[in-house]
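[job 4471] stage=fold_predict status=RUNNING
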Amino acid sequence: MDLKLLFISTLLGVICYSSAQPEGNECIKANAESCGDCIQVGAKCGWCTDISFLKQGEPTSARCDELESLKKRGCVAAKIENPRGSQRTLRNKPVTNRKKGGEKLKPEDITQIQPQKLSVSLRSGEPQKIDLKFKRAEDYPIDLYYLMDLSYSMKDDLENVKNLGTSLMLEMSKITSDFRIGFGSFVEKTVMPYISTTPAKLLNPCTGDQNCTSPFSYKNVLKLTSNGQQFNTLVGQQQISGNLDSPEGGFDAIMQVAVCGEHIGWRNVTRLLVFSTDAGFHFAGDGKLGGIVLPNDGKCHLENNMYTMSHYYDYPSIAHLVQKLSDNNIQTIFAVTEEFQPVYKELKNLIPKSAVGTLSANSSNVINLIIDAYNSLSSEVILENSKLPEGVTITYQSHCKNGVVSVGEDGRKCSNISIGDEVYFSINITAQGCPKQGKSESLKIRPLGFTEEVEIKLSFICDCECQKDGIPNSDLCNNGNGTFECGACRCNKGRIGRECECRKDEVSSEDLDKNCRKDNGTDLCSNNGECVCGKCECKKRENPEEYYSGEYCECDNFNCDRSNNKLCGGHGRCECRVCICDANYTGSACDCSLDTSTCLASNNQICNGRGNCECGACRCTDPKFQGPTCEICPTCPGVCTEHKACVQCRAFGTGEKKDTCDRECNYFTLTKVKDRDKLPQPVQAFPLMHCKERDANDCWFYYTYAVNNNTEVHVVETLECPAGPDIIPIVAGVVAGIVLIGLALLLIWKLLMIIHDRREFAKFEKEKMNAKWDTQENPIYKSPINKFQNPNYGRKTAVL
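[job 4471] inference complete, writing structure tokens
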């Protein structure tokens, strides 16, 4: 298990390392065969048009490289083709500074976004930055279309809407002096499953004695008008209808309101659509319940202000509605009851520049709902762009109120904008490559919910200027087998080679390959290139400053000797693996200087006449002398005295040179040690002199002097000073005092021991006298002697 984990971690490390590597020179990797192909690789790439630029063995694609690399390789700036993108403002009308009650302006004369039209030329990989300004104009005209559900459940709502015209006109006059209002209604598709179970119910779909109008899909009751009283009159004539299922056909109505601009009367001003209902909605696919399978076509089908194709086309999808509402700059306000708030809030998230308000049970709050929703929608500006051409990308950065800067998707919008506020957007447009045929494209950017837009004409730089001067079928391209342009041949179809000298079907023939083998060897192009038309085209290196060259790609400029880890010591150039040294340098790695100024001694002699100057340094011929100019003799008499003053001033800050120490004594490296045992000892590698010198205070200091590449001095950090005559009596007195104190302490100790011994002896004698066994026999004493009597003792001996 541990081995598996180790393998996996190692593999992940390799993958991470590989992914972290730089991508390298994209200009070289592209292998561009023409100037036009080169400049499409990226903004860093340029093409050298100098005819003599390529070295032997280099392919035509070597003309394409990064700009700095081309200059280092010898291509002058005037010969580098490097077109740049540009932009030009075609219409730049200032934003309108208008106040309510001021001069009456037509909607088309009001400007809220600047500039309005630009022309942009794009070079591949080079972004073009466009700055836009948006200012919300005061007293901007508004068109509001009220679209109402007239199913039976909205009966009491209709009564309140009948007086909406004049009331709403009064409230909106506080926002704008140019306000128009219209009215439309909807119920459901006029097919049997949706509105009735029997044909008889088509005339009066309501139950009981209720008088209802026949069901319909959508009716445009009143075109947009500034006459509020007319709105009240026509809405007051409307009657409720009915249907079977709860979801209504409101999407059919919204689609017709969006696309039937002439019937509705939309102007190029702020367009508001108020959608009022107390039910859900049918959407694409639900039409199958009535046998309708054709998808909604998104076109206007109003005849006599009635939608006539509800039985023929399915309901539109949400995405279809979003597209049409956006195309026609319509901002939607969903005025729905509390029950359906969650459904329409989800729908709001899918429809840009839309709002949801809670409608009271009888629509009595509809005016406040509309005012609040309008203020919310108008305080936010969101930029959108038309479909981008292939290979073109766009990014946004917004500069909103209070210094708020946003990027990404948030860079498209600014919120909490009041009337008269100015906000700014920075837009970067970048092309990758060149669109097919290089045709110009048009891009439009506009704020959602507004009719104004910025038109941008895009053109693409697909070719170089030098291509215009190309010579078709030029003699320079193998007797007319290509076009000579931008310093190189662009071969006709079926031809290849630097001069188009070969047909493609000849490329790998054995006869041609012979010409690519040096000295009849086995390697084609020294394994550093490819044989094309009997000529070697050398490989490219990842580093643009490194390249192969030569008839057989046998040369390169990166395999020469190095010194101090620098190619040719940094004093020459590498040609065909040999260093070509700069002036005053020689050697295989150009590391030997011919300059003798570094060998001049203070007497203007080379190496003080004691050696030779080799590669800018002295080689002393007299083994006793060392140093940069053979001026030092570590073992010669007087060396210690010669350097005494400088060692003293640098180590202890004293001596005759202490005031000029920094200037006169910086010719050696000083190292301090603690004691004489730490001083270096003589070795065979280089001479070393041990020195002992005395200063003005009769203090000795010890040091070593050696020359090993550098002059090195090691010195003991403390001076060794003798004791002075004034201190001897003091020391003697101290010593005598210490001796006397010692004797006194010894006598006191002896006296105390005598007293102690006498006391112990007296105590012993006293205890001896008081002991009981001194005068009588010890009661527990038992004699070790036993007596035995012979039983025959005293008797006469028996006669046998």
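[job 4471] summary: Residues 743 and 749 are 10 Å apart (CA to CA).
[job 4471] exit 0
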